Amino acid sequence: MYAFNYQRPDSVAAAGSALGGSDDGKFLAGGMTLLPTMKQRLASPSDLIDLSGIGDLVGIDDNGDGVVIRAMTTHAAVASSSLVQAKIPALAALAEGIGDPAVRNRGTIGGSVANNDPAADYPAACLGLGATIVTNQREISADDFFTGLFETALGEDELITAIRFPSATKAAYQKFDNPASRYAIVGVFVAQTAGGARVAVTGASQDGVFRAGEMEQALSGNWSSDAVANIAVPADGLNADIHASAAYRAHLVTTMAKRAVAAAG
Ligand SMILES: Cc1cc2nc3c(=O)[nH]c(=O)nc-3n(C[C@H](O)[C@H](O)[C@H](O)COP(=O)(O)OP(=O)(O)OC[C@H]3O[C@@H](n4cnc5c(N)ncnc54)[C@H](O)[C@@H]3O)c2cc1C
Question: Which of 61, 70, 148, 239 has its CA 20 to 30 A from that of 206?
Fold first, then answer.
């Protein structure tokens, strides 16, 4: 790890100016992704702006239509939240399936969404439910937020403060995970929302999380596993690695979508 300056501001405004005042600073949330990359010398920020001193960034609120989860809320807190379990049980179940207890008790929703790993789970929930990412500068719809592999619409010194999830009539997430890390080899989040059916796929594409339009159309007409059973996403552009070929991932997308629709009831 290279040397860096460490700061621990106690407000969102102070965190924004600390990052703005640094040469090449980075926000530190749970550190579950950033610290390992620094240890491997794949990242060497001039400053680490630790967000753990900002109380306003922790917590889960009921906003009538759904829930608002503040950025520094851990995966474990989302998984065990009675509010999330009541309003969007599929989201609590998804959080319960992230990594292992150590990762769930340190890793945060803001860090996961800002990092946008192509095999991460939360991006599928954000896109699957049509969430809104709230930052210290604006609000961004999930459809506009995830822009590619480890890429998002976030500006240089933009800080995610919360994510607003609308409830869905029906929703579920199914993933075929990597047995060691539990990252999604393929994960599919389905939801029946006020705006129609939404199907979001993570782990599969070289460009990160995406919506499966043909499946959404089929489910909008007929919410059943059969409706998606014969719909295949093209293998072109899907990941191929030691865990699974592109063709196998394409097969898994349909299988996980069928299971998720069945699980959603
Ligand atoms: C062994 C292991 C297994 C894992 N398994 C899974 C899994 O199954 N599924 C899964 O989805 N993930 C998995 N993860 C990743 C985990 O969820 C991390 O918690 C997550 O990727 C990053 O969150 P963090 O809070 O640790 O962020 P950090 O590591 O602190 O930060 C990640 C990046 O986001 C930026 N950032 C952090 N917070 C903000 C913010 N509020 N606004 C703007 N930028 C911000 C940081 O600057 C950094 O670039 C795993 C990680 C490990 C180590």
Answer: 70
